[in-house]
Amino acid sequence: MDAPPAGKGPRERADAARNRARILAAAARIVAAHGVEGLAMADVAAAAGVGVGTLYRRFGDRSGLAYALIDEREREFQAAFIEGPAPLGPGASGTARIRAFLHALVDRTVAQLDLLVMAETASPLARFGAAYDLHHSHLAMLIAQVKPDGDAYYLADALLAPLAAPLLAHRLRTGGVTVERVKAGLDDLLSGLEAAPTG
C-alpha cells in the first residue's frame, strides 16, 4: 500500500478545524437570531455548508453542539481561575478566591444561560461533566484551606448546586431574583462556612 501524500494528515486536520469553526460560527448566528430554540441541527448544517451527518458525527446531538458553543468561554474561565490574576487566580486568601470564583461562575453561567440550560438538561447527569468536575475540584481545594476539618468534597457540591443553569434561569426569570441577589446569597453561604464550628 502506498504511503499517503506528504502533508495529507496535517491538511486534513486544518480542514477539520476550519469546518468546526464554520459550524460553530453558523450555530452562534442562529442562536443570536432565533435563540436556543432555533438551534436545529439541519439548519446549522445548511448554514455551515456541511452535511447533517457530519454534524452528528462531530457533535453527537444538540447538547454536544451547545457544549461546543460554550467551550471557548469555559476555557477562558478556567484559565482565569487557574493562572489568572488574584483574587480569582492564585495569590489571594482561600476565602477571597472562593468568593471571586463563585461570583465569576455566576457571571459566566448567566452569559450563556440558555445554552447551558439546554446542555445541562439533555440527560439526567448531563451537568456533571468535565467542567463541573474541574469547578468542584478547584472549589474543594479552596474550601479545605478555609475549613480544614470540614467535608470540602460535599461543601463544594453544596456551593455549586444553586448555580445549576436550570435553577438559575428559573429564579432569574420567574422568581424575581437578580444576579446581585444570587451573589449576595452565595456570600452569606460562604460566611456560614467560615463561621461554622469545626470538629
UniProtKB/TrEMBL annotation:
Keyword DNA repair attached: no
Source organism, top-level taxon: Bacteria
Cleavable signal peptide: none
Presence of the UniProt keyword Glycosyltransferase in the record: no
Positions of the HTH tetR-type domain: 17-77
Pfam families in the cross-refs: TetR_N
Keyword entries, A-Z: DNA-binding
Binding region for DNA: 40-59
Protein name per its UniProtKB record: AcrR family transcriptional regulator
Organismal lineage: Bacteria, Bacillati, Actinomycetota, Actinomycetes, Streptosporangiales
